[in-house]
Design brief:
Low-confidence stretches: none
Number of domains: 1
Mean pLDDT: 84
Order of helices and strands: EEHEEEEEHHH
Number of helices: 4
Helix content: 10-25%
Number of strands: 7
Strand order of the largest sheet: 2-3-4-5-6
């Protein structure tokens, strides 16, 4: 059976020392291979800048794309833009392990499979609050009815603004 993630690898042994740039693309089918559904769809471009040296390789990863999620503000489905940048060092070692900043690979490794790294970097790039400035889009994805109700409720509850309350504080009395 053909490995659907085979194209998501770096031909490490075949790379000469020096700087290289690789570009990968993942779409909805990529996310079907992961059980943890923090993110389960999207279209992303991944750029990997590689600076290979004899015993250590520095990589810079740039993630850009969009995923369809529910907006945390109005609850409508939106195409949330996602961006992220990460640095990973690759070191040669007999013991293949890794942590957040360093991946150790065997000196005999010919290929580095990066599909799990790509998934992790995309998940890390998802903002905690899923909103963005969508006013420029046509048609606007926001549910304006929900936003109006939210705005009316917040203004009715607040009565006075925080800034008005702070104006009355005297900071000169010690």
């Amino acid at each position: 059976m053909k490995d659907p993630m085979k194209h998501l690898s770096i031909p490490y042994k075949g790379l000469n020392d020096g700087k290289h740039e690789l570009v990968f693309e993942v779409t909805d089918t990529f996310f079907d291979h992961y059980d943890n559904k923090v993110i389960n769809n999207g279209h992303f471009a991944i750029k990997v800048e590689i600076d290979k040296r004899p015993r250590i390789t520095e990589t810079l990863w740039t993630i850009e794309g969009k995923t369809k999620v529910n907006c945390d503000r109005c609850l409508e489905k939106i195409n949330l833009p996602i961006q992220g940048a990460y640095r990973l060092l690759i070191k040669l070692s007999e013991e293949e392990t890794s942590d957040d900043e360093v991946m150790y690979i065997s000196p005999d490794a010919s290929v580095i499979k990066i599909s799990d790294l790509i998934y992790e970097y995309i998940v890390l790039s998802v903002p905690t609050i899923k909103v963005y400035d969508c006013e420029e889009e046509n048609p606007q994805p926001c549910n304006l009815e929900v936003l109006d109700k939210l705005e009316n409720r917040l203004s009715a509850e607040s009565g006075s603004s925080l800034w008005e309350d702070l104006k009355g504080i005297n900071f000169d009395n010690n």
